[in-house]
Amino acid sequence: MKTADDIVIRHAVPDDAAALIEYLNTIGGESDNLTFGKDEFPIKPEQERAFIEGLAEKPHDCMIVAVKDGRIVGDATLAGHPRRMAHRAELGISVLKAEWGRGIGSRLMEALIEYAEQHGVELLNLEARADNEKAIHLYEKFGFRTIGVSPAFMKLRGEYHDAVLMYLDLRAAAE
Ligand SMILES: CC(C)(COP(=O)(O)OP(=O)(O)OC[C@H]1O[C@@H](n2cnc3c(N)ncnc32)[C@H](O)[C@@H]1OP(=O)(O)O)[C@@H](O)C(=O)NCCC(=O)NCCS
Q1: What is the SS3 assignment for 96?
Q2: Which residue in 52, 58, 70, 77 has a CA-CA distance of 20 to 30 Å to 21?
Q3: Which of 138, 146, 166 best tests ligand 1's pocket when mutated (most atoms within 8 Å of CB)?
């Protein structure tokens, strides 16, 4: 198996905006596991730029990208919650299909969990299609546990798909 030594893992910067939109519109068409499909990410570069700039003001939000030869090939995000849920954040992750199985997803997870621990996030939550074995394996590898099933979470070409709800408790690690 090839290693991901040619991959740089770093925080997204405002100048990534256009490349990120292109990336998201591409990966939407590469699997049926995301909440959007090909070209279903209709955000303008200036909106994406403003979103990335805004991350600096929100310590529980972040976007980490995997870059290969200057091109974005993966991303992982944390989205914090307000008020009485402010101790939790939602995790999202994707990798360009051509780069699957090279450990990029694992490196993004490591970086995101480290960021969450360093910024006082106590619990991470996510939802994954119940048949997305690869993603579920990746999450379990990093300690995520399944807490339930959300029926008919997605409707795709007339078919319903359940999702598993998963969480990672970081409180023990913080002690
Ligand atoms: C899920 C995803 C992010 C994984 O990224 P990746 O770069 O391929 O991940 P890695 O190379 O680090 O491999 C992850 C693990 O999955 C395992 N794996 C690969 N194919 C698998 C399969 N069919 N079933 C179970 N596990 C599988 C790998 O062996 C590896 O585990 P290991 O480290 O114990 O060997 C990527 O496949 C993806 O973007 N999928 C489409 C979008 C998506 O599903 N996002 C998650 C939405 S919830």
Answers
A1: coil
A2: 58
A3: 138
pTM above 0.70, yes or no: yes
Tell me the three state secondary structure of residue 16. helix
Say if ligand 1 is within 6 A of residue 145 CB.
Answer: no
Residues sharing a CB contact under 8 Å with residue 171, sequence separation 6 or more, in sequence order: 122, 123
Could you tell me the distance, in angstroms and rounded to a whole number, from the CA of residue 132 to the centre of ligand 1? Answer: 9
Measured in degrees and rounded to the nearest 5, phi and psi for residue 113 equal -65, -40
Query: Closest Cα to residue 94, out of 116, 74, 108?
Result: 74
Question: Quick check: CB of 10 below 6 Å from ligand 1?
Answer: no
57-93 per-position pLDDT tens digit:
999 999 999 999 999 999 999 999 999 999 999 999 9
Describe the strand order of the beta sheet including 62-68 as a list of residue ranges.
Answer: 7-11, 62-68, 71-80, 88-95, 123-129, 159-169, 145-156
Contact yes or no for 64/45 (Cβ under 8 A): no
In our burial notation (b when 16+ CB lie closer than 10 A, e otherwise), range 66-76 reads bbbeeebbbbb
Instruction: Kindly give the residue spans of alpha helices, DSSP state H, lying in the chain.
Output: 17-27, 45-55, 104-118, 133-141, 171-174
Q: Which domains does the chain have, with CATH numbers?
A: 7-125 (3.40.630.30)
